[in-house]
Structure formats: C-alpha cells, structure tokens
Amino acid sequence: MKSLKDKILQILEDDLKQIEKALERNLSPNLELVRIIAEHILFSGGKRLRPVLMILASRICGRNGDDLYDYSIIFEYLHSATLLHDDVVDGASLRRGKQAAYNVYGIAASVLTGDFLLARSLNISSSLRDPDIVDEVSKITADMSQGEIHQLLNKGDFSTTESLYYEIIKRKTAVLIEGACRTGARIAKTDDIKVEKLGEYGYHLGIAFQMADDLLDYVSDSKSLGKDCGADIKEGKLTLPLIHVLDKCNREDKNFLKGEIEKGIKGDLIDFQKVFSIVEQYGGLDYTKDISRKHVEKAKKALDIFPDSREKDIFFMLADYSIERSV
C-alpha cells in the first residue's frame, strides 16, 4: 500500500520534473562557484512544497500554463537563500543529509550565494510586472529576516512563551508558504476573497509544517531528518514541545533541561535521550501534535469556498502529509 507521500509524488511527478528544469534554467549565474553552491542547496532533496503550492493555487483559480513553472521557483530560490544564511547563523553541520554549504565552500561564498538566490527571486517576481506580487515577495523577505533575528535574540531564553514561538514560526516559515499560495492566486487574476482564503490555507499549513519539523527534531534520526537530531536544543532554540514542558515540569527537571540547553549552546555534549524522555513524560510531543492537527483542519476549512477539484484534493493531501511526517 502506497504511503501518502508516495501518492502525492506520483500525482505531482510531471510538475516536479518541470519545476526542476525551471530551477536549473533560471539560475544562470556568471560565476562557476555561485552555480556550484546554489546547486548544492537547490538539488539536494528539497520537497519543492512552495513551488507546488503556487502552481496549485493558480490552477484552482483557473490559470494554467507552462510559464507557471518559471514563476513558481521564486519561492524555492527564496527558501534556499534563507537556508544558506540560516545554516551559517545556526552553525548547523548538516542540511538535507549533506554537509552544510558553508562547511564545504566557506562562510563568505555561502552567504553571497544566498544573496544571489534572493536577488534572482526578486528579479523573477518583478518580471511579472504586477506591483502586488512584488510587494508580496518583498514583504515575505522582510518578515523572514525579522523572524530569524527574533529567534537569534531569543536563543536560550527560557522565558520564551507560546505566543512568541508562534510569532517566530509565522515569520520564519508560514509567511513564505502563505505567500506562495497568495501569489499563485494573484497570477491567476482572481478576486481578493480567493487570494485571502488561499493565503489562510498557506498560513495554517506553514504553521503545521514547522511544528512537524520541531517534532522531528525529537523523534527522527539524522539520516531521515537530513540534519542532526536534537539540533534545536543544541542551538538554543526553544520550540513548542520544550516550551510546553518547561511550563509544566517540576523544578528538578526544569533545571536539568535548562542546563542541557546551556551546554548545547556552548558546544558541549548533551544528554539528548534524557531530554527526550522528560519532554515525552510531560506531554510536549503529544501537545504539539494536537496543535498541529488543529492547524491542518483550519487549512482545509479555508478551502471551503472552492468547488471539489483535483487541485483541492492535492491541497488536502499536502495538509494531511504535513503532520503525518512526525507521527
């Protein structure tokens, strides 16, 4: 029996092939090193969720055409640019199962390649000659930057609240997925209500995806996760499972967790198994799963205004897959 992921990949097989071609076709850097680093991050196993969502959003609003593939990569270039920058900021060793680009090519070259990908995404968005789309992409870029800065400023901050966590992941993750959906609708020249509803779907899907990623940091292995397990704790990032537990656990366990986070920030070894045990004991994982599922349902609800269609079915499947990854 095929998994949900396999079903989605089969349905989207032709689209994904065209997206890959568009990513390569539009890269066109003048310098070989930039091409090598860009390909290191672009062609190392990304899900292509954002381009797919943009294309589906256009189609569900009645717009189709091969040019959608070239427009859709705006969001993959932008996403990849942030990954190159984030890995430097976080000191991450792995990305998508490979050495982080800065570990292979150096910090300066990786950061500048991220800048190049960002510039390409803005260049492609401006080619649409639609001020609303340019405004959308520029706001996404600003929001994502602020989200990363916000997270950096709160590194190892044990007073981080759920509301602050939501603000960070909204800016870090949800705005880009929301923006891909909104932009797809705008390219289709649809009405504002459909733009807003597709954006609402994308927002809740983005929140669910980020929560699933936060869960995978606890329950997955490095090979399948594509980055080090427990990386968030080692980097001093307080995500929802840990925030929930720090609010619920006794003083002894709270002091232990704080101590392990401080050790991780310093680069010392942490007792991840015990951290995992405490987080599980106090319901941090189940709590995060429950919240994530609620966002999946909200994402689906946002599509009520659209009639049944192939695109709507895929939107629903992607929403279900977002949380299935961490179960």
Give a written overview of the molecule:
With 327 residues, the protein is mainly α. The chain has one domain: Farnesyl Diphosphate Synthase (Orthogonal Bundle). Helices cover 76% and strands 1% of the residues. The chain contains 17 helices and 2 strands. It has a two-stranded antiparallel sheet with strand order 1-2. Strand 1 (94-95) and strand 2 form a beta hairpin. The chain is globular, with a radius of gyration of 20 Å. The two termini are 18 Å apart.
CATH architectural arrangement: Orthogonal Bundle
How would a textbook summarize the main sheet?
A: 2 strands, antiparallel
Radius of gyration: 20 Å
Helix-strand string:
HHHHHEEHHHHHHHHHHHH
How many helical stretches?
A: 17
Q: Which term fits the overall shape? A: globular
Strand content: under 5%
Summed up, the domain count is: 1
Derived from helix and strand composition plus strand pairing, the structural class reads mainly alpha
Order of the strands making up the biggest sheet = 1-2
Level-1 CATH class name:
Mainly Alpha
How many angstroms separate the termini? 18 Å
Provide the low-confidence segments as ranges.
none
Mean pLDDT value? 91
CATH topology: Farnesyl Diphosphate Synthase
Helix content: over 70%
Looking at this structure, what is the CATH superfamily?
Answer: Farnesyl Diphosphate Synthase
Strand tally is 2
